[in-house]
Structures are given as structure tokens and as C-alpha cells.
Specification:
- The protein is an alpha+beta fold.
- It contains 3 helices and 8 strands.
Amino acid sequence: MTYTDGIGLRRIDHVGIAVPDLDAALEWYEGALGGRAVHREVNEAQGVVEVMVAWPEGGAQVQLLAPLTPESTIAKFIGTKGPGLQQLAFTVEDVEAAADALRAKGARLLYDGAREGTAGSRINFVHPKDAGGVLIELVEPA
């Protein structure tokens, strides 16, 4: 039995958290919550510097996202909504197939085709207006 009806969702990949100060946020997630930074990169195209935080038992990670410039999407998000939950990401088998299946169900995707995401993954996003106010990211790992 399939629960995703052709979308190909596999699991929750990560939760994206918008933060104004990446180092302070990372200190809290590592110090208070016991996570460990497992990947850090600058994504110029999305205007962010990001760190993926994981825990010893595995499972979904936390992605800390800080703006590179005051004009970036994350800076605008923080400016209007404040720091906090910015996205919920799902691992998918095939990002293009998942996007097509969601479009067939009436969902709007932010990109016409997949773009490069963290660590060489392929990504797309479901518009929050079509997902109960939540920005849903589709992630096909590299």
C-alpha cells in the first residue's frame, strides 16, 4: 500500500530553521540539544549560509539557515515572521516525479524544474498557500 499516491515521499529529511546568527544558533543546538554539525555550506543562489545538525541516533536533521544579505529570502522571512521554523523537507525518490505528481493534485511548485540544494541534492518547494501555510521542500539526495 502506498500512502504518497505516486509522490514518492520516503521520510522527513530535515526541518529548516531561519536564524539571524548562525554561530549562536549552532552553539545552542550543539550545546543544549546535543546535536553535531555534519555539513556547512554557503548557497549563493539562495542567499544563505547553512549548517545541517544531526543527532547520534540518526533520523531527520535540523538545517540552520542564516541570510547572506539583507535582500535574501531568509532575511525577508526573519524580517516579517522572525526567526523560527521556515520549512519542512521530505526525502523523495525523484524530485521531478514528485513535483509532477503534486502539480497533478493542484499544488504550485516554486520552480519549473529542480534546482541544486544542500550537498548537491536536487530540490523544489511546494508553495505554502497550497500546503496549509507550510513551505514544503522536496529533496532528492545526491
